[in-house]
Amino acid sequence: MSIMTYRQALHDTLRSEMHRDPDVFLMGEEIGLFDGAYKITAGMLDEFGEKRVRDTAIAEEGFTGAAIGAAMLGLRPVVEIMTINFSLLALDQIVNHAAKIYGMFGGQARVPLVIRTPGGGGQQLGATHSQNIELFYAFVPGMKVLAPSTPADAKSMMLAAIRDDDPVLFLENLSLYNTKGEVPDDDIPAEIGKAAVTRRGSDITLIGYSRMAYVAAQVAEQLAESDWLDIEVIDLRSLRPLDRETIVESVKKTHAAVIIEDDWLTYGIGAEIAATISDGAFDYLDAPVRRVAMAEVPMPYSKPLETAALPSTDDVIHAIRQTLDAVGRRRYPMGEKS
Amino acid sequence: MSTGQRTTVAPPKPGAHQTNTLAVAAEHLASTDTAAEKRSTDFYRQMVFIRRFEERAARAYTQALIGGYCHLNLGEEAAVVGLMAALRPTDYLFTNYREHGYALTRGIDPNRVMAELFGRSDGVSKGWGGSMHMFDLEKRMLGGYGIVGGQIPLATGAALAIDYRGVDEIVMCTMGDGTTNIGAFHESLNIAALWDLPIVYVVINNRLGMATTVDKSSAEPELYKRASSYRMAAERVDGLDPVAVFEAAQRAAATARSGKPFLLEVMTERLRGHSVVDPGKYRGAEEIALTQERDPLVTFAAHLVDTGLLTEHEITAINDDAVSRATAAAVFAEASPFPDVSTLFDYTYATPVANDSHRLPGQPLFEPAPFPEQEATR
Predict the structure, then answer these.
(1) Which of A310, B27, B84, B367 falls between 20 and 30 A from A36, CA-CA?
(2) Catalytic amino acids of A?
(3) Predicted complex: ipTM over 0.85
(4) Which of A65, A108, A244 lies nearest to residue B153, judging by beta carbons?
């Protein structure tokens, strides 16, 4: 076990997988000479050479499609799309091709491809560079969409993604890259399609993924102290397939749920979770399921506006308290907080 | 635009390649050995089979035995057979959605091609693809693709894989004229040229993207010239002459084998509408008449008879054989069973995965809780 950042865990895993399998190679804009826009691939051009660390032209559709074609012939490309916003330029290749090729040809061709890309707002990057649009890919059968929130998961899920024979969209997050955590030394791939209960509790279920799973863990610790609440936290980890069972089993126990997400509310990932709870735990609910999501605006540049648009820990705490208040299950002294 | 302009291959510009017409091919044939003669008659046989197969498919479509879209290679037979003859069995082929003829000429069993059109389990893609998505790993036909231009980045990536592994193979990627306006075309040619990939891009120019002419869609209507933006070698060839196409495709393939991409523009005719259901009313009678006059089956047959390679009797026999094989394919297809509905969830993922949804429409996410007994007995 070592302590390292999410960035380091990704970097080390990519390196070890390239040493393990000569068919694994990297493609993307500025991943070589520039070391990657977020330095995940730092030093790898020197170590592996231009054949396996390929700086591409600014042509997301072209190079993502080329990676899919190379995967069809059995290579295992790991593509970096600089941010998830730019993946829209490759949408046809990802949705109409990567996700379809196995089924459309009756199982004759596999696409063992990983697309690594960070989402995330809060960096004052404005409307076109702050989106969380993983939903677009999680909507599509044929895609696998992974969203690790910890350095340990960054490693185990990257191992799983590279060794899987299907196209995987691997969602990273700008504000997670510097977070630290324990990472096992062994190379044990995660099981794709499984959520994790990252904190056991009985009062309410708090559900998130990627940055919001990190926020959820923080909020749970904070409210344990301030509100004497015993919160169960679920990190979704896999957005497609979605582990509905783990969500429903938790809510059957806690009788209440708050979902927190970095994407927009309407039609968002949280809507699917809420529908899942409605279907699987309707009789167990004490309160309506609450969702905390981004304000439905193009992300503004100016700091106060951006901060207002993004879900904060206070927003999450408020939603939890309101949910429990509504059914008389608040535990801390009334009148102390809003 | 006059039909005269449309149906004439543009004259060569200084510095551009321009290749054989039928006249040159005739001269060429007269001076070569029996292998070339046999090749020509083989080409004719393959062309006739594509024609009869496509006509049989069109009939099945009108009988509602084939669904969806159905784009035919009618008028493009010479281009198809010439191109396919330049490939080795180890080379890879990516095409657009007008690909039945390519699948047949590449050597895929016609029964399985027709069965795919009929949506049957013996289809080349097991009934999952249909007319636009023929795939056969053994014949290295890596797909017809329904999205215009979608196949181009994929084919480029296949060439990247060949280059990565250092094997002696190439990729051929066909597309229609309208495709040269899509971003994927330009991004891919740029990548292939930058990375010296072994790929031949082929533009089948029938001058019509559905009803929109090349002149109305392409600011550079001499499409092969677009390669010059990427310093890529290119050539335009008469696609009504299979021998000319074959020779040009061989030059293109040799370039690709040497590690450089190539753009080959093949000037063809579309004898009918964009797809089976399109009556093509946007084309004038005069233009259609001219197109039919230039029908490669008719002109190549006449040429083979004139040069003494085939007799009228042999032409008839070749036609009869093609009709009977196309008919047999339709009979096979109709007898083939539809895929079992229990296989619906078999091809979402290659690696089985936890929590993959196997729900049919209307099924609940979770089994509803049983109705309380007390309530039920009331």
Answers:
(1) A310
(2) 60, 129
(3) yes
(4) A65
